[in-house]
Every structure is written in structure tokens, then in C-alpha cells.
């Protein structure tokens, strides 16, 4: 093989022409440096001069052991063994390099040494920035988790109720696989919290779980949110383009929340991506491959939506591989006080003193219907923790609407705060509109006759949704 290459080369170079050799070496982007046996530089190419910032003529004849006493070259000359270094720092050049150094022999005698290396300062800097960004992201994630006190594993998940336990058992099983999961249940039952626990119990736990709220993103933006876009893809696009949520979730999990609120057009695009595991950015032509685990959630009845032609059956079958049904809080009343304890511990830290519930409040919390489920329980306790200045929360610290009518007058008999009364009525009307519309937010806002923006503001204000 070597003799064959030799023959081809010598037919092109009948006589070794040093000029031609120098030309080749000087056009290489990597540094080529040759020293003799006492480390005197006998050849350096233009790439070396470029890093050093002086003409080649100025370095020829100088001794490398004086310029860079720790250079690998010196060791190679001493040992006679080639060396490949993954990364080292050359202080004389102020550069990080990777490369190789090998000895030159004349018979048995070492007559010099050749070093070929590459400047990787940009890579080192990028790596540093990447590590720093990752560190900041991990720190922020930790902070958020500590603040919210959410369960991080199935062991930490509160659930005495036997029906819930069955769901959690199945969830723990499926978490270990890469299967698609569909979480169903009313608003506020903790679908997102369960999705997080499934992700954290999976092999992908060290990669991110990226959430897409399909209901909150306007129809014309959802495609760019999911798939991202290339530089200049449309007017107003960010310079340099933008990564979509699918790319951010690569090797992790994508959580498609409120999947029932996605338009039919987007459902078709999503289905294609899930089937082919690849997509194109808006304005792009290259197919991007992703390795993602999908968890979807909805409070809508997807089967009914299929019958009405509002949800694609093929997408439903693709998502409904392992359905997990979270029951409403009113059907697991045995968990109410335990959940309340977790929230009180969290709010106690915020208000700076211990918080407990009076026996009457415990009875009220257990008896209430909780249309807004765990989210509503949390919001009620947050309200109480702010209003209550002592350690014990009594019924007078609770919002009026959760107290049974028969007790109500005694609690709020002196309340003429019109804003509080209007807010309480408004919340009740919104909750019953949602109930009447089978949790379809678009139908509910139409029935209420208010704009989407104002509707979502109110859902947020009254703690009906988080976003
Ligand atoms: N198991 C739990 N432990 C502690 N807190 C919980 C738990 N489940 C839910 N929560 C609290 O309830 C709130 C609502 O939960 P989550 O957002 O997961 O509900 P959801 O079912 O996804 O609601 P939506 O349908 O409106 O998106 C969370 O912010 C969290 O604070």
C-alpha cells in the first residue's frame, strides 16, 4: 500500500522541490514546527507566526527550550517517543492547543522533532461559557424546585388514596421506559407535577423536560415555538434564528400541556414529527433528527373531541399508549390534609412563623368540593397564610367562597369590601362556565363574552391556572 502511494507521489514530484513543500506547509491552518536535536527552531510555518504575531524569520534559529521550557518537544527529544496531547497550554503563545509531536531519526540518532498542533482557544472559551450556562441553569432549577416544594420522586408523592396509588404504580412502571404518556384529569389536579416526576424517574432525568403550553401560545406562533426558525425566516425573526422546543428537549422529554387545545393543522404537523422523529425549522431545508420522550396532558375529553372532529384520531392513538388518569381532589379527600401540610410548611417559611390549621378549618377543607383541585387548595392556603398573623389558621382566614353557606355570615359579617365580593363572584362564574363547557377554555370565554387576554388574566389572577 505504502509503496503504491509512494509511486503515485513520486510521479507527481519527480524531484523533491523545497519551495513546493514550504508552500504546502505554509497553507496549513495547523502549526507545523521543526526543531533540531538541541531545540533550535529550524522550520516554522505561517500559522505559527500568525499566533506569535511576528514574522517567521524572527523565530528561526531561536531555541525552543528558552521560549517554552515546558514544551512537549523537549520531552520527545529526550525520550525518543512520540506524544499526542489532548489539550495543553503554551504560555509563550497564550494558546490552548491539541496536537502531536514526533521525533526525526537519522539511523539510530535523533536529529530533531516535529510538532503539529491546533489553536483551540475558541473551543476552550465556548466550553467554559457552556459549562457556566449549565451551572447557572442547574442553580436556577434547584432554586425553583426548593421554592415550590414539589415531589421529585414517586416516594415523595403524596397519595394515600387507593385509586391514586394504582395510577402512581403504573406511572412508576412506565417512567422507566421511553413510552409516550398521556396524563388526563381536571385542571389543577397535578398533571404537570406528575409529568415532572415521571421525567425525573426516567433515564433522561439529567436532561431537561421542556414544557409547551399548547393553549397559551397563539396559533400563529406555535409552529416556531415547537420547531424553531432559521435566520431571516420571517419579518421580526430573531437574528441568528431560534431553537424550537423540540430541539431544546433533545435527549430529554417534551411535555405537551393542554394538547386538546392544539389546532387541527398543528396536530397534523405534530403527528408527522412524532412519527418521523425529525422536522425542519421554519425557513430551513435540513431535516433535524431528535431523540425525545413525549408526555402530553389535557383536561379535555379527547374521545369526545374526536367524535366532534376537533381532535385527530391518529394523533390520539399515537399519544394514548399509556394513559394516566389523575382523579379530582374531591375524590381523594383522604389526601387533602396531608397536601395542606406540605403547602403550610412552604408558606410558613415565607411568612416567617409556624402555621397550623384549626380543627374547624380541617373539616371545611375536607368537605369542600375543590373545583380547582390541588392548585385551588394551595391558593386558599396561601391566602390564609397572608391574612393570618398568628400561628393557627381559623375559618375567618379562609376565602368566603370555600366556607359552607350556613357558616358564612358569621365569618364575614363585617365584610363590605366590594372588590373582594366581586372577585369571589367572578371566580365562581368562571369556574361554572368552565364546568359547563367541559373545561373547553375557548368555549368558556365565548360564553362569558370576554376577550382571550382578559380571560387568561382572570384565570391567572384567581389561581385557576399557573401560566
Ligand atoms: N402532588 C403534588 N404535590 C404538591 N403540589 C402539587 C401536587 N400536585 C399539584 N400540586 C400543586 O398544584 C398546582 C397545579 O398543579 P399542575 O400545574 O401540575 O396541575 P395541572 O393538572 O397540570 O393543571 P392544568 O390542567 O391547569 O395545567 C402546582 O403548581 C403545584 O403547586
UniProtKB/TrEMBL annotation:
Coiled-coil residue spans: 123-150
CDD domains noted in UniProt: AAA (cd00009), PAS (cd00130)
Key words, A-Z: ATP-binding, Coiled coil, DNA-binding, Nucleotide-binding, Transcription, Transcription regulation
An annotated Gene Ontology molecular function: ATP binding
Record carries keyword Chloroplast: no
Swiss-Prot/TrEMBL GO biological process terms: regulation of DNA-templated transcription
Domain Sigma-54 factor interaction: 157-386
Domain PAS: residue ranges: 17-70
Recorded superkingdom: Bacteria
Cross-referenced PANTHER family: C4-DICARBOXYLATE TRANSPORT TRANSCRIPTIONAL REGULATORY PROTEIN DCTD, TRANSCRIPTIONAL REGULATORY PROTEIN
Protein name per its UniProtKB record: Transcriptional regulator containing PAS, AAA-type ATPase, and DNA-binding domains
Organism: Desulfosporosinus orientis (strain ATCC 19365 / DSM 765 / NCIMB 8382 / VKM B-1628 / Singapore I) (Desulfotomaculum orientis)
Lineage, opening ranks: Bacteria, Bacillati, Bacillota, Clostridia, Eubacteriales
Amino acid at each position: 500500500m505504502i509503496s503504491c502511494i509512494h509511486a503515485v507521489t513520486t510521479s507527481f514530484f519527480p524531484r523533491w522541490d523545497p519551495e513546493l513543500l514550504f508552500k504546502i506547509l505554509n497553507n496549513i491552518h495547523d502549526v507545523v514546527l521543526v526543531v533540531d536535536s538541541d531545540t533550535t527552531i529550524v522550520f516554522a510555518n505561517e500559522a505559527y507566526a500568525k499566533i506569535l504575531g511576528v514574522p517567521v524569520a524572527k523565530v528561526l534559529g531561536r531555541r525552543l527550550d528558552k521560549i517554552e521550557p515546558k514544551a512537549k518537544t523537549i520531552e520527545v527529544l529526550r525520550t525518543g517517543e512520540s506524544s499526542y496531547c489532548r489539550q495543553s497550554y503554551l504560555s509563550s503563545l497564550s494558546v490552548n492547543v491539541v496536537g502531536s509531536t514526533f521525533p526525526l531519526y537519522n539511523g539510530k540518532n535523533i536529529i530533531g522533532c516535529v510538532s503539529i498542533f491546533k489553536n483551540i482557544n475558541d473551543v476552550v472559551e465556548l466550553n467554559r461559557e457552556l459549562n457556566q450556562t449549565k451551572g447557572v441553569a442547574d442553580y436556577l432549577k434547584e432554586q425553583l424546585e426548593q421554592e415550590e416544594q414539589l415531589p421529585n420522586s414517586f416516594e415523595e408523592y403524596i397519595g394515600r388514596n387507593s385509586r391514586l396509588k394504582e395510577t402512581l404504580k403504573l406511572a412508576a412502571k412506565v417512567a422507566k421506559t421511553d413510552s409516550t404518556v398521556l396524563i388526563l384529569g381536571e385542571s389543577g389536579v397535578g398533571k404537570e407535577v406528575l409529568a415532572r416526576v415521571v421525567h425525573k424517574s426516567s433515564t433522561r432525568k439529567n436532561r431537561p423536560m421542556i414544557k409547551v403550553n399548547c393553549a397559551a401560545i397563539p396559533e400563529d406562533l406555535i409552529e416556531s415555538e415547537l420547531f424553531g426558525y432559521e435566520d431571516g425566516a420571517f419579518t421580526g425573526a430573531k437574528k441568528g434564528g431560534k431553537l424550537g422546543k423540540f430541539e431544546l428537549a433533545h435527549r430529554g422529554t417534551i411535555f405537551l400541556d393542554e394538547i386538546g387545545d392544539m389546532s387541527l393543522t398543528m396536530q397534523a404537523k405534530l403527528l408527522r414529527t412524532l412519527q418521523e422523529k425529525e422536522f425542519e425549522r421554519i425557513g430551513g431545508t435540513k431535516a433535524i433528527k431528535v431523540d425525545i420522550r413525549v408526555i402530553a396532558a389535557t383536561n379535555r375529553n379527547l374521545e369526545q373531541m374526536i367524535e366532534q372532529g376537533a381532535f385527530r384520531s391518529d394523533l390520539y392513538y399515537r399519544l394514548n399508549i399509556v394513559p394516566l388518569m389523575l382523579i379530582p381532589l374531591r375524590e381523594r379527600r383522604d389526601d387533602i390534609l396531608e397536601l395542606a401540610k406540605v403547602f403550610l410548611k412552604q408558606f410558613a417559611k415565607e411568612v416567617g412563623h409556624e402555621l397550623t390549621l384549626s380543627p374547624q378549618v380541617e373539616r371545611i377543607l375536607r368537605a369542600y368540593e375543590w373545583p380547582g383541585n390541588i392548585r385551588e387548595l394551595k391558593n386558599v392556603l396561601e391566602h390564609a397564610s397572608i391574612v393570618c398573623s398568628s400561628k393557627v389558621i381559623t375559618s375567618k382566614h379562609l376565602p368566603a367562597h370555600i366556607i359552607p353557606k350556613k357558616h358564612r355570615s358569621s365569618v364575614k359579617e363585617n365584610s363590605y369590601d366590594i372588590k373582594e365580593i366581586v372577585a369571589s363572584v367572578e371566580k365562581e362564574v368562571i369556574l361554572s362556565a368552565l364546568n359547563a363547557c367541559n373545561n373547553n377554555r375557548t368555549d368558556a370565554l365565548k360564553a362569558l363574552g370576554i376577550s382571550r387576554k382578559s380571560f387568561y388574566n382572570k384565570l391567572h389572577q384567581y389561581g385557576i391556572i399557573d401560566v
